[in-house]
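ugh ok so i messed up the first submission bc i forgot one of the chains. this is the corrected input, ALL of the components this time, i swear. 491 residues overall. if the numbers dont match what u have on ur side tell me asap before i send this to the collaborators (the ones from the other lab, u know who)
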Amino acid sequence: MNSHSGGKADFKTITELFHRFRKQDSTFCYRGAFSEQFTSTILDISAGATYRTSGNVNKKVSFLLVECFQNIIKHGENAELENLEDDGIFTFRIDKDGFIINSINHLKSEETIGLQDWVEKVNSLDSASLKELYLKQLNENELSSKSGAGLGLIELARKSGQKLVYEFESINEKYSRFHQQVSFIQGDLIKNIEETKGLYKLMNQENALLFYKGDFSQKSILPLLDIVEQNVSGGKNISGMTRKVAHVLIELLQNISKHSRPDEKGRKEGIFMIGLLDDHVYLQCGNVLGNVDKQMVADNLDYLTTLSKEELADLHKAAMKASLKFENKNKSGLGLIEVVKAARLGVKHSFEPIDAESFLFTIKVSF
Amino acid sequence: MLHIERTEDTPEVHFDPREGFFSVVGRSLPENAYNFFKPLIDFTKQYVTSQNGKSTNLTFKLDYFNSSSGRFIFEMLTIFEESYKKQQQVKVKWLVDKDDELMIEKGEELKSLLDIPFEIEIKE
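and heres the new structure output, hopefully the right one now
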């Protein structure tokens, strides 16, 4: 089996992302297909991401999320049709100050001037004038296809109560990127455009579909599973391969939820990324472990990854039988065996010291 | 009778002792599998004490289940295995889609671990 303790290169990006977003409660970044079917899933993820931290996502935040995402679906250029690398990224972050949504999408360069004028107009108005403009647009442009974007941006400005942060970036003669930020925060406006560009670059580099950092409660895990399943299967029927990926995903994420060392706020934090590399799906997870757990996981993985497929199957059977005798009904030791067993192209892992007592444990499973 | 509706992370359970019909359908990935399966295990234990020659059919049609659910599905089946060894009639039907490699593997593993009539039915 081609499994071993990984080289640093395998975990460079996920480690970097972990450190970069460590201070934030949750960060979610999506670089998959921008299509309507994911709107509700993204809402579920945001609800899961906030449920142990800053209370439930309130209605305003839900509205902003949906409006932002649907705006891109409606007005962004479709990667497949236009032969672009991706649809862009959609990301949100939650920290003590509030909720920030950043997105990058493609549009035809000729459309940038009109859009820029419009955003500037929206940004120049106070709330009373925004309402007026909104009602005017509603009456006048009902039948125009462009009115959707116009109305959408007014609504984003009205509901967020903050200026829209934006930037245009030319890719070539035909296409540009639209960087947008909608903030729902207390205090001064924070600009995340540059940071989001950096995130986009990393996501591109890894050909990542999704990245999530935050609390791994069941409430967060289920919608993540949903979005992964639908993207990996490409909207077709869920295939055997998708099921294996989903299975490993569940085991790894529930493992984080069970074993991660709680931070000072009592959250069990982790980081998770999924993508395609050379046409193969890979999953990466990371979480913080103390010394004792680190040693246990290391010993376990070092052993498991030396076993052949048949040996793993035998070991799993033996562990099933043994688990019937265990006092602790929720600890079976089966999870890691199943992960290694399902990984068609191997498992790698690494530990990086964070401080004297804890390590960032990262694992990469390839299919 | 024990009937539990399907949720987003637990399967539909329908145990009908009068008909000797037991089915588990859906996906099973609860965080705490013990809490979910404990009533099922208890119900099964109770049932086999009064099976009295009744033929029992178990049907599993699972999309997938986490490792801890797997442990309890196995435990439940071992209870029926005991009963089967005491000359009771028990049959397990494991329904899977043909490209669901993982669930086929899981079915085969359970079959090899148990001394009980166990049929893996692969749907085209």
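quick check: Strands of chain B lie at 2-4, 12-16, 21-28, 56-65, 90-97, 118-123. that seems consistent at least. The domain at 2-123 of chain B is CATH 3.30.750 (Transcription Regulator spoIIAA).
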